[in-house]
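Hi all, posting the design record for the shared folder.

TITLE: backbone redesign
STEP: 1 of 1
STRUCTURE INPUT:
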């Protein structure tokens, strides 16, 4: 799903998110992305609000004409829609992205908003290594199939389980509502998070790459625990040591 620069993934065989749930979920809309031949195109990614003025997403969502990840001023016009489950609605926020910071050796980027969002609780960051068998939830915008794909107009969600952890990646497979619940086009950067007993959520990884959807194979997600310090230093995000309810924050 990273073969075409700027093309991201969403959820196949998921379920619609109820209004007011997972308000940190973010749709990134990119316009007039330049190609090497001088033409332009539009695309989108998913992400999550992790601090009042910062969104986390996939690093490959921001790139040059050769597909190389870029940092600094946003390389093409990008807006973040936060706190909205249906694109036809008018609630939530639509804010310009003004700057991008790329993580070293991880497919993770932090996108700075032109103005802070202060009425939505950001998603906290796990500093603990992901564990095989852990159930995660993902929220994302985008297609529900790789056949004649079109971006979803309503935020989708599904549950996944971690099958293995390797280097900077956590591999996941679909769990609910189906074994082939999976990420799809226009959902790169979507957050995978634990749902804690106290009602909070903690970010474990973000969508990076995988097969055409729907599928029941492994999906590659980029871990955040290994770069939790960098995320906190860059954005001021809350880091949870235990990655779960009751865990120590710093």
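Okay, here is what came back for every position:
SEQUENCE:
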């Amino acid at each position: 799903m990273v073969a075409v620069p700027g093309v991201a993934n969403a959820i196949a065989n998921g379920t619609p998110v109820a209004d007011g749930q997972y308000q940190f979920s973010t749709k990134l809309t990119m316009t007039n992305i330049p190609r090497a031949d001088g033409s332009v195109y539009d695309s989108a990614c998913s992400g999550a609000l992790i601090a009042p003025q910062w969104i986390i997403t996939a690093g490959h969502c921001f790139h040059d004409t050769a597909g190389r990840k870029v940092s600094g001023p946003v390389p093409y016009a990008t807006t973040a829609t936060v706190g909205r489950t249906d694109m036809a609605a008018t609630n939530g926020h639509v804010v310009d992205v003004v700057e991008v910071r790329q993580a070293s050796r991880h497919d993770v980027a932090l996108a700075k908003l032109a103005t802070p969002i202060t009425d939505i609780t950001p998603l906290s960051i796990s500093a603990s290594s992901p564990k095989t068998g852990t159930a995660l939830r993902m929220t994302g915008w985008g297609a529900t199939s790789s056949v004649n794909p079109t971006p979803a107009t309503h935020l989708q969600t599904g549950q996944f389980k971690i099958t293995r952890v390797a280097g900077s990646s956590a591999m996941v497979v679909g769990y609910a509502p189906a074994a082939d619940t999976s990420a799809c086009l226009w959902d790169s950067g979507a957050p995978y998070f634990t749902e804690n007993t106290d009602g909070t959520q903690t970010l474990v990884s973000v969508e990076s790459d995988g097969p055409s959807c729907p599928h029941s194979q492994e999906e590659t997600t980029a871990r955040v625990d290994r770069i939790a310090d960098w995320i906190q230093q860059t954005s001021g995000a809350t880091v949870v040591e235990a990655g779960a309810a009751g865990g120590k924050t710093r």
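COMMENT: The radius of gyration is 16 Å.
Let me know if anyone wants the other runs.
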